Amino acid sequence: MVAVATAATVFATTPPAYAHHRTGTEPFLPYAQPATPPKRGCATVANPIAPTGSIPAVQVIYAWHDGDANNYEASVEQIARIVDRIDWMLDESTNYDQHINLSCRWADNGTYADYARALVVPEKIESGSNPFTSSGTVRADLHGAGFDDSNRYYLVFTDFESESDAIQCPTTGGMWCSAVVELWDSGVAGHELLHVFGAGHAWSAENGQAYFADNMYGWWDYWMLDQDFNTYYDPSETTASFYIDPAPSTTTANIARHPALTTPACCDVGFSNDLLTAQERTIEAATLTGFSFSGTGSSMALTTTRYYDGRKALQVNVNGTAQPFVSVTRRPPVTAGQTYKFFVRLRSDAASKNAQLQLGWYNSGGTLLSTSSSGSIGLLSTWEERSFQATAPASAASVRLRVTTPTGQGTFTYQLDSLLLNHCNPTCRPNV
């Protein structure tokens, strides 16, 4: 492991080795990527080794050594398009406009060929050799060559066998703040670059189970970022922070405010969006802030022993008689005639129990107009994402989100976490 700053984590990806130029398969879900992605362009122009006075930005490097020769001219435009796809994925993942600041060696002349060569810097790895050169050797060599500026975050494409890995740097850059990519596609490269920005994986305290599910877009198929807005990326509330490492680490970040990204601006049409606050999604406050409960004999409390992500979740103790309701206290605004989708992750300590999701529609005067309810949802012992969508009726101005358990199921407990209210724009986010 490379020696890095306090609390940094090395994330390694081990896809299969590929032939020369390491061409992988581009992500394809939930929507196909454009064959020719939009050109991001240079956000800043500076000396790659000494970018004095430049804004924080990503520096793209093509790394080669004598064992596999220098194929820069044959590879440079391919790398630039991969970087442009990563930027496209970032922007299209949500209904916020946000992009990567890219550093170039010169201001391009308007052609893609010149832009690619301005963006991608070739660098020989003097210590590199076949059949394998470690990412640690790559970083040490680049560090020695002067690629170590605190305003730079490095994305390194190796033209030889190596690891694909990254080191978290949610605030300050430098050579150790880098992603080394051996498999060339926007899935792997984007995944590792997000790690550099501070993204972790989704962790769950499930009876000692350290790793539960990867909400960060996968290098194998998905191109969206944190679709739940609760793991590491929330452009709608940049003051919010999220745990990026498993307990007992308390390191937090929000990738949306990373210095190498532009300020997110609402609103455009993207893959996902959310109408809840960070607390309503993640349930991380020290009290039951943002939630209400009703149900004679039953109770709701914070739990720190079972949670989907972060450090806390809601637990409901059902007494078997009254029908308890957990509600988001605030009613988010809605537009009549438009469709909304309520997501929540649920699990239970007991088998064969059921829950139901409800959307209660209110008019502008605060009068309940109607309630849309899902069918019966079976609760499992694992954290399953459940959802229900409905169209706001005429005169609807706000919506109440509820989770309930029908009567007659006896006494049991269940937990809920990771809430989301998607405004279908133009379509609802699928369950993933």
Which class of secondary structure composition applies to the elements?
Answer: alpha+beta
Overall pLDDT: 88
Q: Number of domains in the coordinates?
A: 2
Strands, count: 25
Which shape, going by the Cα principal axes?
A: elongated
Order of helices and strands: EEEHEEHEHEEEHEEEEEHEEEEEEEEEEE
Strand fraction band?
A: 25-35%
Output the strand order for the largest sheet: 1-8-9-7-3-6
Low-confidence stretches: 1-7, 14-20, 210-214
- From the N-terminal CA to the C-terminal CA, the straight-line distance is 33 Å
Relative helix content? 10-25%
What is the oligomeric state here?
single chain
> Sheet with the most strands?
6 strands, mixed
Count of helices?
Answer: 5
Rg, alpha carbons: 24 Å
Key words describing this protein structure:
single chain; 432 residues; alpha+beta; Jelly Rolls; 2 domains; six-stranded antiparallel sheet; 5 helices; 25 strands; disordered N terminus
